[in-house]
Amino acid sequence: MIVLKIIGWTLLAILALILLALCVRVRIRVEYSDENTSVLLKWLFLKIPLYPGKEKAPKEETPKEEPEEEPKPEEKKEEKPKKEGDSFLKTLYDAEGVDGLIQILKKVLSYTKLFFSNLLHGVVIDELFLDVCCTRSDAASTAIYYGETCAVLFPLLGSLASRCRLKKYDVNVYPDFIARFSAASFIVSLHLTPMYMIGITLAYGSKLVFGVLVKMLLKISGVKKSKNNDRNAIKNTKEKSEIQ
User: Contact 51/37 with Cβ under 8 angstroms?
Assistant: First the structure.
C-alpha cells in the first residue's frame, strides 16, 4: 500500500512539473539583415539556434573499391493482384457529391482560419524594430517606390497589431536618393505559452474530427454497405437464374 502511494505521489509530481513547464513561455528572437540572419528559440534553460544552426564538420570519405557485378539471371516480375473495390476518393464522391465536397472544404478552411486567428491572439510581440531603405535609379522612381512600400507595409503592420499584442515597436521607412541598392533589416522578439497552443490545437482538432471526419466516415460506410447489398442482391439473382 505504501509503495502504491509513493508511486501515485511521484506520478502526480511529474505531472505537475510537466504542467508547470508547459506554462513557461517559449521565446523566439529573429534578427535579419543583408549580412546576417539568425533565429533563436528560448524555453526554460534551453537556447536552441534554429537558424543557421550548428555547422557539421564534413566527413572524409574514403574511396571504396567497387566489386565487380556478376550477371544476374533474368527474373520474371510477379504481377500484383489488383484490389477490388472503389478508392477512398471515389467512395467519398459517391457519398457527398460535388456540393458535399465543397461544404466539407469550406468547413475545413473556416476551422483552419479560426485556429490561426485564435493562435495569433496568444502571441505577444515584445519587440519589433524595422528599418527599410527605398531607392531606385532616379529620384522620381525612388519617391514612387517609397510610396508603394508605405502603402503595403503600414496596413500590414496595423493588421498585425490588431491581431497580436505589440509591446515595443519602431518602424523606420525612408527614401534614399543616393544609395545604389534598397535594403531592409528587422528584429522581432515574441513569446507564446505552450499550454495555450496545446489547448487551441485540441479544441479545433476535436471540432475538425467530430464536425467533419466522423460525419464523412459515417456517410462513406453507409455508401459501402449499400453497394455491398446491391452486389449481394445481384449475385443472388444470378445464382437463382442459374439454378432454374
Answer: yes
